[in-house]
Design goal:
Blueprint (H helix, E strand, L loop, with lengths): L1 E5 L9 E5 L9 E10 L2 H7 L9 E2 L3 E9 L11 E4 L2 E2 L5 H4 L10 E2 L11 E5 L3 E3 L13 H13 L8 E5 L3 H12 L3 E5 L5 H9 L4 E3 L2 H11 L4 E6 L4 H10 E9 L11 H7 L2 E4 L5 H12 L9 E6 L3 H9 L5 E5 L1
Parallel strand pairs: 11-12, 11-14, 12-13, 14-15, 15-16, 17-18
Antiparallel strand pairs: 1-2, 1-4, 3-5, 3-9, 3-18, 5-6, 6-10, 7-8
């Protein structure tokens, strides 16, 4: 089968190539999935650039959906032809974190597309107990390949942040994660302001289409809006930009005893005024990857048909055109780019 393989460490994009490898054979507790689509994630770029721990050689891709082509002897609840999404993080299964479904915290975790061969291929294997069926209203669509990043947002917005109906929530950064956090936050009854830079105007307009109550592309304008439209500041800030200055803005504009949740990846050390956070008693938390409960919540939200995902899929490329696809992501064009076997 065709697969996009990262061949070794320190080679950059030159070390990524389309190769022919055998179709994997599922173990007793695994299913073989025929991939419909796999999204390119910023983490994939970090892996290629040696900025994220991983195992090489490895087939890339952890954001995928597909249909079951074969089941192992111990698989229950799934049949050939079922379309599934996959919690790609495998833990040891018996530590403190695994027992509560937080496989991403397991010291022995191995993730599909990072440590184990992933979804940028014609086929991929996964443990059946990490698979969830796609609701009937989404069967046949490749949009569920967005499930992994969307589940990260479910964890950040619902599992790790407390949002009450009517809370004023700032989402800093209108990229793919910011757009998904917006849609999740609206399911919680939030009044959402999405902020960005002047160059983000097209992305901000899409945020407006997807339910943002206010969009702002200038920091001074954002400060003015807070002064005129809130009594104390934002109740919650979801930092999705991964830009250091945005954290300072969040600390300034969140109300006393408000919440800041880090969702985006800064990629390097950043400075923050901890005394300002201390004086305001700001609750600062972070959300890393996904947990089992987040996937369950996502499946329920999918069944309610509350998300508009198609607008976030900017392009679809064949595996053969992977260089063009990765270049588009590296240029930060659009939102999500899919590779299709």
């Amino acid at each position: 089968m065709k697969a996009l393989l990262k061949q070794g460490h320190g080679l950059g994009m030159d070390g990524v190539s389309l190769v022919d490898i055998p179709v994997p054979t599922p173990k007793a507790n695994e299913v073989l999935i025929k991939v419909m689509a796999c999204g390119i994630c910023g983490t994939d770029l970090h892996i290629i650039n040696e900025e994220y721990d991983h195992t090489s050689p490895v087939v890339l891709g952890h954001e995928f959906t597909g249909t079951i082509a074969e089941t192992g002897a111990d698989v229950k609840g799934f049949e050939i032809g079922d379309q599934v999404i996959v919690n790609n993080i495998n833990g040891c299964g018996h530590c403190h974190y695994c027992k509560q479904g937080d496989y991403q915290m397991c010291l022995e975790k191995a993730s599909i597309g990072i440590n184990l061969n992933g979804g940028m291929a014609e086929y991929v294997v996964a443990p059946f107990d990490h698979c969830l069926k796609v609701p009937e209203n989404m069967v046949g669509s490749d949009a569920p390949a967005l499930s992994e990043p969307l589940t990260c947002c479910v964890r950040a917005v619902i599992d790790k942040t407390r949002i009450e109906p009517g809370d004023k929530v700032l989402i800093s950064g209108p990229g793919a994660i910011g757009q998904l956090c917006l849609q999740v936050a609206k399911t919680q009854g939030a009044f959402v302001v999405v902020s960005g830079m002047p160059a983000d105007q097209p992305r901000l307009e899409l945020a407006k289409k997807h339910g943002a109550d206010v969009i702002i592309s200038d920091t001074k304008e954002l400060e003015k809006w807070v002064e005129e439209n809130t009594e104390f500041g934002f109740d919650v800030v979801l930092e999705c930009s991964g830009a250091g200055p945005a954290l300072g803005t969040a600390i300034k504009l969140v109300r006393k005893q408000g919440q800041i949740t880090q969702v985006g990846v800064f990629g390097k050390p950043v400075t923050a005024d901890l005394d300002a956070m201390w004086k305001k008693e700001i609750k600062h938390t972070s959300s890393f990857a996904t947990g089992a409960s987040s996937w369950e919540k996502l499946q329920k939200l999918y069944a309610q048909d509350v998300f508009d995902l198609e607008d976030l899929i900017s392009a679809r490329f064949s595996l053969e055109d992977y260089k063009e696809a990765f270049a588009m992501v590296d240029r930060k064009e659009g939102f999500k780019v899919f590779l299709k076997p």
